[in-house]
Amino acid sequence: MQIRLLPYLFALLTSFTAFAQQINVAVDHAPPYSIIEDSGEVHGLILDILTTIREQSAIDYQINAVPCPFSRCMRMLAQGEVDVMGGLIRTPKREKIMQFVDPAYMTLTSSFVFYARRDSDITVEQYTDLYTKRIAVMRGGAFYPRFDEDRELNKVPVFSERIAFDLLLKGRVDLVIAVEDTAEVAMEVLGQPIEKLKKVSYRHQQAIYGHMAMSNQFNDSPLAQKIRQAMARLAKEKQLDSVVAKYKLPPVSEHIQGVTLPHP
């Protein structure tokens, strides 16, 4: 009887081990860096990064993509319901609820810009002009400190950039804040009419860094530490540069100077 049970016990142990090595990755629809197809298929840069780490470092894990709106992805990561999310701007508030992985793998030398309807008479010449406007913002999103911390602005939280632009096109908000380098690509992918919009004069220029972040629970695991070490090594060895190049991003290896990386 005990001998007959051995194959079943082995199968159960194997199944448990495979489950323990699965990484749940939250992915929101944010073209061109992450896309959720109508079929439900998910692909994007954070999945490519994790696949490259697995292949180049011989770390055994399965990648389970979890499609979700941005705000839900963030909430699930903060609560430990998923293990990893990508493309996040590092802020002090976020550092309290999740763990960021160095180095950043996305770097945009872009501007935060504000879109208005082309047929409107809305103008924004300076920051203070924003106070009289209704501004659609991604729920849970981070932009730049002055804007993020300003409670006097009339911000209208939405679940996705697509909804933000839909509200703008329908005249329900006055402005949408977005990253200039990605907003028009996203609108094209979503089939939204960018020609009906205009960028106002005011903008905020800064380097925008996108990080992988881990849930606090997952970050304490041996697997997470192996991924951190592999990420640092592959960045130094320039093996991630070709991965991000497909998304027209600058090499990761150019932005690791001055960053304290974990020792392999």
Automatic annotation (TrEMBL):
Residues 22-251 form the Solute-binding protein family 3/N-terminal domain. The keyword Repressor does not apply. Coiled coil: none annotated. Residues 1-20 form the signal peptide. Keywords: Signal. Transmembrane segments: none annotated. This is ABC transporter substrate-binding protein.
